[in-house]
Amino acid sequence: MASPVRPREFEDPPSWLVDFNEEKIQRSHEVKWDRIDGCIEKKLMMNRDIEDCFDGDGEHVYIWPNGGSTPYCCKTLVIKADSIATTYGGDRDFIWDFIRYYVRKCPNVEEIKIVGNVVSMNGFYIVTSSGGFYSRFAAFISGIKVLKKSPLVVKCFTKGSRRMKSRVFKVLYR
Fold it and tell me: Which of 131, 146, 163, 164 is the most buried (most CB within 10 A)?
C-alpha cells in the first residue's frame, strides 16, 4: 500500500503570510459593548421591547421601523429585523438598501445595531443560520464605509438557540 502524499513544504513562507500579524485581528470581545448593548441582550432573552433600553439616555437614537415616519439622522441607528420581516417582507435588498440610503443621507451615523431572531436575520443575509459572521454582509458594510469619513460599527444581536438553550449571539462588523 502506498503512503499518502504529503503536501509540499514551503522553503520560505509566502510574503502575505510573513506580513500577517495575528495581533492586527479585531476580536469581538475587544470591542466596547456598552450598557445599552447589555440591555438589548437582556430584553431579547425575555422577549420584551428593546425601546426601554433607550429611555432617558440623552443621546438621540433612530429606531426603524417606527410606524412609517421619515428617518432622521442620529449617531445610532437601531434596526428591528423581525418587524421589518413581518411588515415589509423578507427581501434582503430592502434592508441592505435602507442601510446604504441611511449612511449616504446621514454621514454622522457611527453605529448601527441590528436586532432580531435568527430566522429574520439570516433571511436578510445579516448573519449565518447559526447566528454567526456572514462574509457577504461584511463585504457590504466594508463597501459602505468607503462612503464615510467617520468610523462605522455594525453590531448584530441575534436571538437563537444552540443545544436546546436559548441565547443571544453578538456579531460585530467593522
Answer: 131
Domain residue spans of the chain: 46-173
- 41 CB burial (10 A radius; 0-12, 13-18, 19+): buried
Query: CA-CA distance, 50 to 76, in Å (whole number)?
Result: 14
Contacts of 104 (CB under 8 A, 6+ apart): 147
Question: 3-state DSSP call for residue 46?
Answer: coil
Q: Is the pTM of this model over 0.85?
A: no
Spatial distance between the Cα atoms of 151 and 61, rounded to a whole number of angstroms: 17
Residue 123's CB: how many other CB atoms inside 10 A?
A: 19
